[in-house]
Amino acid sequence: MSMRDLRAEHAGLEEELESLRQRRSNIPARMLELRQRLCQELSLDEEAVPFAGELLQVHEQETDWEGAIERLLHNFGLSLLVPEAHYRAVAGWVDRSHLRGRLVYYRVREPRSSEPPALHPESLVRKIAIRPDSAFYAWLEQELGRRFDYACTRDLETFRREDRAITPAGQIKAGGDRHEKDDRHRIDDRSRFVLGWSNEAKIAALQEDDLPRFEARFKELLNENTIREIANFNAQLNKERAQIRERIATINASLFDIDYNSGRYIELVADTTTDPEVRDFREQLRACTEDTVTGSEDAQYNERKFLQVRAIIERFVASVGFVHGEGGCFSLLRHLSIEAYHAEKAIRRAATSG
């Protein structure tokens, strides 16, 4: 992942947080915008066609199962519930509209039975609350029992015995034979949670959990990319210095064959510079890269290391001719300077917004 990718991820997180602060739903902003379009064009109240996730939430005492439940009910939670009275209009709008995404909706009719479904004693459904004042309560109660009556099992021996079961880690067993575990996202990644009729917990979690994770990834990226590029730059400097010495040696070999005066010849001496700025710059490079070989995490991940890298980059930013020059070792840091500048702005902004 590049600095640009990291900035894009952080910008997306900030955008989602800003959207969450302006509403109470945990449904992603893009899905809410799709419903808003539908309701505006059909003159419907948005509360008339809720997402299933807006009417369901995990009981407070069942938080250790929250990740597994969110993972299993994720797609269902993003489904739109359409009452029978609006079904014809919604079906027509969906068919003639380019949704720029995917939408699943359910035609909600009166349940055939008013009796609550029979559930497994350890059913996942028992850990979910349905919004009590919802007009969809009876339908959701029947649908949850029909589709998500999975036994919540904490040990694999019980899991193997059950016909339909789920573990806290998110492994799912259905129909006795089919098993699934989807770890494309962390099971505790609250940015993907969609259940609940209040989003205060999601906002708090994103602010408290994702910011430190963002900072950790930034430090990792600083180590893997920025410091490595500084080390490469230092190596390139040493290589070019060696090439200069080789060329001087070649010139000196030719000069040796030319008599300057009887018994004398001219020799060019490659002397170390006495310029204090050059010496100071090389000392900065040495200090910045001295720990990269040992792999010391403490040395690479601390604030001092970042400040050393930034000092070198700022030196190039101040020297316009070097940063924007073409060719040679100085152009090596052009992209690095720009990327690191924006990365630092992002991490500082993230720290203040949390």
Question: How would you describe this protein?
Answer:
- The protein is elongated.
- It has a 4-stranded mixed beta sheet, with no helix packed on it.
- Residues 322-344 have low confidence and may be disordered.
- The protein has 354 residues and is an alpha/beta fold.
- The protein is 54% helix and 7% strand.
- α7 (200-256) packs across α8 (276-289) and α7 packs antiparallel against α12.
- β2 (80-83), α4 (84-96) and β3 form a beta-alpha-beta unit.
Provide the fold topology.
Layout: H1 3-21, H2 29-42, E1 56-58, H3 66-77, E2 80-83, H4 84-96, E3 105-108, E4 128-130, H5 137-147, E5 151-152, H6 156-161, E6 165-166, E7 172-174, E8 178-180, H7 200-256, H8 276-289, H9 297-301, H10 303-318, H11 320-323, H12 334-353
Parallel strand pairs: 2-3, 5-6
Antiparallel strand pairs: 1-4, 6-7, 7-8
Helix pairs in contact: 1-7, 1-12, 7-8, 7-12, 8-10, 10-12
What are its keywords?
354 residues, alpha/beta, two-stranded antiparallel sheet
Could you give a short description of this structure?
The protein is α/β, with parallel strands linked by helices. The protein is built from 12 helices and 8 strands.
Low-confidence blocks of residues: 322-344
- Percentage of residues in strands: 5-15%
Broad shape: elongated
N→C terminal distance: 23 Å
Structural class: alpha/beta
Q: Assembly state here?
A: single chain
Helix content: 40-55%
Q: H/E series, N to C? A: HHEHEHEEHEHEEEHHHHHH
**The biggest beta sheet, please?**
4 strands, mixed
Overall pLDDT level: 81
Record the strand order, biggest sheet: 5-6-7-8
Number of helices: 12
Computed CA radius of gyration, to the nearest angstrom: 32 Å
**What's the total count of β strands?**
8
